[in-house]
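Title: Prediction job returns without error message
Component: structure pipeline
Severity: low
Priority: P3
Assignee: unassigned

Description:
Job completed but the reporter wants confirmation the result is attached to the right record. Sequence as submitted:
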Amino acid sequence: MVNSIVLPKIMQIGANSLDLLPETLVSLGCSFPCVITDKTMLELGYVAKVEALLNQQNINFGLFTDTMPEPNDTSILAAVEMVKTKQYDCLIALGGGSAIDSAKAIALLASHGGKMSDYKVPYQVTEISLPVVAIPTTAGTGSEATKVTVISDSATDEKMLCMGSGLIPAAAIIDYQFTLSLPSRIAADTGIDALTHAIEAYVSRKANLFSDQQAIAAMKLIAPNLIKVCHQPDNLKAKEAMMLGATLAGIAFSNASVGLVHGMSRPIGVHFHVPHGLSNAMLLPTITEYSLPGAPRKYAECAMHMGLVTVIEDQTLAHQTLINELKHINQTLNVPTLGEFGVVKTEYEGLLTNMAEQALASGSPGNNPKIPVLSEVIELYKKVWL
């Protein structure tokens, strides 16, 4: 089997790698970027850091600061128009996954027109768009290294999954120092998101030798450091390991796909405005336990790569150790249940079939080791309510 691996052309990794932004732009042949970010990055002073670097090199640039969390197809339209009108030659995406996903979508629509719904799976985005330089400020989504963007449809509340080589950033600048000021809640949610990427990529039906190596490395970096980065915000080694682990997990799932956790997570996010990483965390133990029979050896290996068991003598024991650890992570990092988050149970139950249909329509559950039918997804949604 041939596996087509897609990666950013340039990856600058490590402390102070942001300083290499101007030369990265030169390497891409770009001289008139537009920074795509949000108000939080502005308030934290991160935008000022990027502006200073560009000003030092006399690089003219534009600035769009109105990206939104969990972006939808209308939230990006003003930026699309701005990029087309000003004729910027690349985008600099600064922020978490929402800012980077927004930039990917803006580049696509500014370059090729149409609506985001035109590009959702099963469509494969192969069109070459404006280069995107992704600068993640969270250790979680891995969007800086993926051929994926998720944009909600404002009319239907569907989280549209768009995939293809045309969505891979041209460059990624992975400077863990951006994560030093992350609130513990965001560090936890994005960290569990990264762990979910690594596990789902490893057990995916589309997994391959390349993606497996990235997923294994990601699990080895993330598992021992996830709780540390939340409880020890000044632990630089843990922060650095988490940042690289999140990127490797992104590379893994970009080249192997995610599974049922992500498929079920997106509708929860759209309908009840639960942050993506948090909804993954709410689902991960239960969905992993459901999926175990589909890939018993690989799930046991996840326990080993996460450092939970040294050897696999008993797969059942390894499975239970894995599930216990996922529950322990949620408990330690104060992951709420849906009810504790504030989701009204009657509203939730009224949307069960709709959410299950949306989850299956996304395509991600088809990559799961155990592929569910509609009734099983509904039952799993009921089970995670707690």
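Comment from assignee: result matches the submitted record. Residues 288 and 323 are 7 Å apart (CA to CA).
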